[in-house]
Specification:
The structure holds 2 protein chains of 2 kinds.
Chain A lengths: L2 E7 L4 H5 L1 H9 L3 E6 L12 E2 L4 H5 L4 E2 L1 E6 L2 E7 L1 E2 H8 L11 E2 L2 E2 L7 H9 L8 E4 L5 H7 L13 H8 L9 E5 L4 E4 H11 L6 H11 L6 H6 L5 E7 L1 H5 L14 H17 L21 E3 L10 H4 L8 E7 L2 E5 L6 H13 L12 E5 L1 H9 L4 H11 L1 E3 H4 L18 E3 L6 E5 L7 E6 L12 E4 L3
Parallel strand pairs in A: 1-2, 2-3, 13-14, 17-20
Antiparallel strand pairs in A: 1-5, 4-9, 5-6, 7-8, 11-12, 13-15, 15-22, 16-21, 17-21, 18-19
Helix pairs in contact in A: 5-7, 7-8, 8-9, 8-12, 9-12, 14-16
Chain B lengths: L4 E4 L23 E6 L5 H14 L3 E6 L9 H10 L2 E5 L3
Parallel strand pairs in B: 2-3, 2-4
Classes of the chains: A alpha+beta, B alpha/beta.
């Protein structure tokens, strides 16, 4: 049985420098020695080291630490040790005492092949990455950013060019098979794989750790109850709003505080945008095509935020909708426009509920009833008023539902001098603004400000159109 | 700018990688035609003949010219053409 030794080293490693005499001892033995050097072809001196600055051999050998010593017998690996440990090097080589003048032990350094970002670069360069998407080569002087615009892949803002390396990194954010079919994306009813979602997540600016949330958001959008196709086709304003609950929100750094509904947080911004890009690019849902929105709204670029779960007395949306406490979830809602409620005068829960009802009643049109759902995003200062009054979420919702019931006489056609309205025969009815279950309340926002937000849903909310959908985020 | 970069297609791949030309209009009647002289020799002669054919059919024609054939059209010229006409003929010649 013939033994052959391979050592991978780099000059920029004190331990590699330390073991140079040992390498010469091994080379002087009857066994063969091949040394690969990651950074300097002249190192280690006198051993005819093979230049591995491309890191191909380091990657193929699965090197994580330098120096690494590997014993091959008949071309099969028969032993390996990393760093310098005299006993281990003697065991692996079978050459007895080595490096007599060296300390017994010194840890090695990180291999350049495992520097951050390198494994994916090397897998694309030398391996067989699990990518099936069609490749499009861009050649100078064409600009890859401009190509993304000209091919219609953008929502109007620049996207991150989806290179194979970036997509491979994105796929490391999930354990799911890249070629798994997640669902059929409207409006073109196109099959969508995990890989296609990863490509669009790259373009949206996501980090790999956002992938489980993006995947859950796409799956939620594909639930029949969400009616993504209709939501996209409508002339109304609405588009998916994503609310994230549970520990994943903190783990990926989502914003539930100051400016939670605004710009500036990468996870908030890019997760909502990734969902929109999947609909656009995979599903073919583009404005002016199947997207017939009369005006649209800025939330169609992205609308995603985390709920503030810092108050243990507040029931988070995900839990309210059946997700186990401690688990993470996304809830999708067909949001279409934001109405502020700035009430700095209410000091009692009763007053604040009636005040919020005024804003809720204006959603869509003050005379529209039982067709639009809504989310109230309560700020911490408005939450405090309810909490100090002893109201929990269920009571807040009951009060808001009650306060948004109005007499038909105010809503019928012609009332208030406005032609629009409900049928005249409803003039004596009491008309609720919202269907049962159509009103949702979440908690978010900065600590200062007696103001909350009302986000109205689609004109066709509920079973006849779109209902909120909640999905657990896979760990 | 890049020296060659590969991108992965984010779409459902239902259209070819090489994009087709935009389909020509089924008829020219009712449209405004632009004739763009790119600045090469005798291009204007060709465009003069085209203009006489088009105007002879009662079509509206507008004439444009690039400052030089050695560079792409200035953005302002491209925008003006896009704003004013429905169809453009670029005159190649030599």
């Amino acid at each position: 049985m013939s033994a052959h030794f391979v050592v991978v080293a780099k000059r920029d490693c004190p331990t590699c420098d330390l073991v140079q005499p040992v390498l010469h001892e091994i080379a002087a033995s009857c066994a063969g020695l091949t040394v690969y050097t990651q950074d300097d072809p002249t190192f280690p001196a006198g051993l005819d080291a093979i230049d591995d600055r491309s890191l191909e051999q380091s990657w193929r050998l699965g090197i994580e630490t330098v120096p690494t010593l590997i014993r091959f017998e008949d071309d099969a690996e028969a032993g390996r040790t990393a760093g310098w440990d005299r006993a281990e090097w003697s065991r692996v080589t079978g050459l007895g005492l080595l490096g007599a003048d060296l300390p017994d032990f010194q840890p090695g350094c990180g291999s350049k092949s495992v520097d951050p970002g390198m494994p994916e670069i090397l897998e694309v360069a030398f391996g067989e990455p699990p990518l099936a998407a069609r490749a499009i080569d861009v050649h100078a002087p064409e600009d890859e950013h401009e190509l993304c615009f000209s091919r219609g892949w953008s929502d109007g803002l620049p996207v991150v060019p989806p290179t194979p390396v970036r997509v491979l990194r994105m796929l490391k954010g999930t354990a799911r098979d890249p070629q798994e079919i997640v669902g059929v994306i409207p409006p073109n009813n196109a099959l969508c794989t995990v890989e296609k979602i990863a490509i669009n997540a790259v373009m949206a600016g996501c980090k790999p750790e956002y992938m489980p949330v993006v995947l859950a958001a796409v799956e939620a959008a594909l639930e029949p109850g969400f009616a993504m196709h209709g939501l996209l086709c409508t002339t109304y304003f609405s588009s998916p709003m994503v609310v994230v609950n549970g520990p994943v929100a903190r783990r990926i750094g989502m914003n539930s505080g100051v400016n939670a509904l605004g710009q500036g947080n990468r996870a908030n911004a890019s997760i909502g945008r990734a969902l929109q890009l999947v609909i656009r690019n995979v599903g073919g849902g583009v404005p002016g095509g199947i997207d017939r929105a009369t005006l649209g709204w800025p939330g169609k670029y992205t609308l995603c935020f985390a709920e503030d779960e810092s108050d243990p007395d507040w029931q988070p949306l995900g839990v309210e909708r059946g997700i186990a406490p401690g688990a993470s979830a996304v809830t999708l809602f067909g949001g279409g426009g934001l109405s502020p409620n700035m009430d700095e005068g209410s000091r009692s829960p009763e007053s604040l509920a009636r005040s919020l009802a005024m804003t809720l009643n204006s959603i869509g049109h003050p005379k529209l009833v039982e067709c639009i759902d809504a989310f109230v995003v309560l700020s911490p200062e408005h939450c405090r008023i309810f909490k100090e009054g002893g109201w929990d979420k269920a009571r807040i919702k009951r009060a808001l539902m009650a306060a948004t019931v109005r007499p038909g006489s105010e809503l019928v056609r012609g009332a208030g001098g406005v032609d629009a309205g409900v049928k005249p025969e409803l003039v004596r009815e009491a008309m609720p603004k919202f269907r049962e279950g159509g009103l949702n309340v979440v908690r978010a926002g900065g600590g200062a400000g007696l103001m909350s937000a009302v986000i109205g849903g689609w004109m066709a909310s509920g079973p006849r159109g779109s209902s909120p959908v909640t999905k657990e985020v896979e760990a | 700018m890049n020296d060659g970069i590969r991108l992965l297609d984010p779409t459902a791949e239902t259209s070819p990688v090489r994009r087709g030309r935009r389909a020509p209009p089924p008829a020219l009647e009712g449209l405004t035609l632009g004739l763009l002289d790119i600045g090469k020799a005798r291009g204007s002669t060709f465009l003069d003949r085209l203009e006489s054919h088009f105007t002879g059919r009662g079509l509206d024609v507008k004439r444009y010219a690039k400052p030089t054939n050695t560079r792409t059209a200035p953005i302002e010229l491209a925008q003006t053409v896009a704003e004013e006409v429905d169809v453009v003929v670029d005159a190649l010649s030599d």
